[in-house]
Fold this protein.
Amino acid sequence: MRPDQHPRPNEPVNHIPVKNKLEFRVLRHGIVELKGLIGSLYFRKQTSIAGAKCQHNLRGLARRVLFTIERMCLANNRVI
C-alpha cells in the first residue's frame, strides 16, 4: 500500500466521504415528511414548509427542504 493513501496518525482526516440519502414527500398542505440518512444520523421527521402543496410541486420545494435540514442540523449541533 502506498504511504499517501493513509494520513499520519496525528493529522485530522477531513476527506471522509459522507453518505447522504434523503427522501421527502408531501403529506398534506404545508406538511412534509423528511426521511433519510445524513452522514451517520438517521432521522424521520415531519415539518411544515411553506409552499408545500402537492407531490408534483417539488422543484421549488427541494430548496426549502435543504434549508430546513440545515436549520435542523444546526439546532442539533450537527454538521453536514
Summary: The beta strands are 20-28, 31-38, 41-48.
